[in-house]
Amino acid sequence: MLSYRHEYRIERIFNRLKSRWHIAPMFVSREEQIQGLTYLLTLGGRVLTVMAFTLRRSVQTDQATLPGLHPENRTKGSEQPTAERVLNAFSKVTLTILKDTAGREVGRWLTPLSSVQQEILRRLGFEASLYQQLAILNTRK
Q1: Which of 1, 98, 119, 134 could anchor a disulfide with 107, C-beta 3.0 to 4.6 Å?
Q2: pLDDT digit string, tens, across residues 1-10
Q3: Element (H, E) at 110
Q4: Count of beta carbons in the 10 Å neighbourhood of residue 97
Q5: pTM across the whole model
Q6: 52: domain range?
Q7: 140 falls within a domain
Q8: Looking at beta carbons, which pairs linking 58-65 to residues 24 or more positions away fall under 8 Å?
Q9: In angstroms, rounded to a whole number, what is the distance separating the alpha carbons of residues 74 and 69?
Q10: Domain-located, residue 27
């Protein structure tokens, strides 16, 4: 009975993957491929669920709103941010890696974080310096 009552939640995760991100059907023939794809999709669903839960709990604890997640109205605050809107807030982030003619990395450029993105990372428990580390040139060869 408990499994049946929670069925909607499980189905909602897969519906999110299929409808909102338009994952096309894939042809897989081997059982290992089916298992791997299933594990990958459920892992993605779990990450999204935990991210949304953590953000909502943080916003609720502080009795605040998270502005900038609504593309139609950037000043509108969100009390219950969805994972899709949070990911959309990071959609313009780019990491450019410059290489010389020999293929060696010579530099990196990273899009600066907006205040909304910094707030999201803070509420998820990440430091902004973690993001900045992506731009540090790896000098070990």
Answers
A1: 98
A2: 666 665 656 6
A3: strand 105-110
A4: 14
A5: 0.70
A6: 2-135
A7: no
A8: 58/123, 58/124, 59/123
A9: 6
A10: yes
